[in-house]
């Protein structure tokens, strides 16, 4: 299976995006397709051993659109002023058309040569020519409308095309009748409707495009963070090369004020780097030899040499942009409802417009008025606002999250976070920093501490559990002897087993005693370790307890404030840990966590998550280790940190790029405001169409309230602007700057 994101040209409303999405999902060997109207992209998962890129682009073309190739946000599309110039010219022309056709209504002086009373034929021909120019200007609308009707995916362009062409053809008939001498047809011309409708549609589309560009700013800025050139160290000499010339393994140089060109590892020097574009953390981070550097980071104050490890699409920033793009291409449940409605909406509007013609003609309404109603219904009902309601808000919120160092993998997650009422947190590496240290050693063997610890550290070197980090650090600091370990075994949720020479060694939690049926004879020492808020590691050699080792950690500085804030929001916080209950309770009390579930195996963690969900809770799991991965995957929302294991990151829905738990508060705030914004957008979109279609049908004519096609096109544009500006309000969302 392979997944690509294609840039799509020709989508103008939600009926376009939902129509293309349906068509793509119908194709054999396309596993899943999601189309984003705002980003103008299609995310397609397909069987790459059967289909090729050419096939996918053919499917897009068959649906009535054009593929522009794989989406690349780093491509700087130069702003073209041509459309702005056209709008100005045709705006002036539209004013002239309205002056010629309507000036007499408000007693404006008229041009005798094209006056409707003195020279009706000249009047009709001049408007015919002018509207013909507007038809040429709006040819893309007519073409797309026709193509989408042929492909059975009628959209906004289809509605506009039918309305505009109906007005034009009826007016051409009127011009023909004037030529034959029936001058009263001069009052039955709708050339000005053709011109003004096309102009306002173009104007609305231009404003839409500019507004969409603003929503994509955060993603575009991320893609343009990396520099275009780099300094490479070759044979002791520094040479400037383009970023495309950099290869994995090359040694690069970053001087003060320069950007890091690619992901790599420092091999010489040290410096403070600004990684705020990734982490949202404004304070520069000190980096030294063997530390990782991220492409796009700014070197503040030092000279460093670093080895290139990840370039191009493999880089951290490219991965983040890809994940953010994939997230904007997913559909929240609330968006699927809007898409479903849009899919039926356009055909229903066409049917309503046709029925209005039949009913009005039967009722004896003049052809002139009937055409007016028909075109007004088609134009005013265009579902632009409906299609923009959800994706605009989602794209803005994804950009907000990215700017705060929060990577959300799907828009469904943003919707789900709004409903979370229970947050389950792992202890080690999540509520604590995970920088474990050996605090106590109770040695009951005949060996020295160093010799005993050499054996224990040899086992722990083979483990990925957070606690093993304390032993690895101790081993490095004290330069202990390394033993060869045979028959190594990781006993899930309990500990480790291995054989060193003739000794069978077990290292683990209190569960190891129960497993081996060994009685604990050192309860007093264990209590001392636990009362110091340390975790107890048992060392058993050949069936005897040879040592108790206390390993402790530092609680995250922001953890207490985060938990207090969550409690204030009526969100229950639960500590879920494999550590012993007494140690966990001490830390929980320190942080203000009311509920603790301790001594649990990884499989039991999953059971806890499932049990909470079964009871009706919407659960967020926050963890960082391999043993948290199943729980992260089973929770409604899985949140992990960037210092987490790869499997935890893969299992999570959200990654906190700066390892700061307070970002969870930002995430919840952004989610709640985004969902509220989407609901407001959908309300205004539905309210607009619910109100304006009856007005266009003439149901309020008894009160003197009527629409003509020109006013209908203006109203349609204003409805879209309402949704756009409401979505852009999310950018002004105030979040705690201290986080």
What would you say this structure looks like, in words?
This protein is of the alpha+beta class and 739 residues long. Among the domains are: 227-314, Distorted Sandwich (Calcium-transporting ATPase, cytoplasmic transduction domain A); 406-432 and 555-657, HAD superfamily/HAD-like (Rossmann fold); 437-552, Calcium-transporting ATPase, cytoplasmic domain N (3-Layer(aba) Sandwich), CATH 3.40.1110.10. Helix content is 49%, strand content 18%. The protein is built from 26 helices and 26 strands. The strands form five sheets. The chain has a seven-stranded mixed β-sheet with strand order 14-26-25-24-15-22-23, with helices on both faces. Strands 6-5-7-13-8-11 form a six-stranded antiparallel β-sheet, with no helix packed on it. It has a six-stranded antiparallel β-sheet with strand order 16-21-20-19-18-17. Helix 1 (14-26) packs across helix 11, helix 4 (120-137) runs parallel beside helix 7 and helix 13 (384-403) runs parallel beside helix 26.
* CATH level-4 homologous superfamily of the domain at 406-432 and 555-657: HAD superfamily/HAD-like
CATH architecture of the domain at 406-432 and 555-657: 3-Layer(aba) Sandwich
Widest β-sheet, arrangement of strands: 14-26-25-24-15-22-23
Q: How many distinct beta strands? A: 26
Largest sheet: 7 strands, mixed
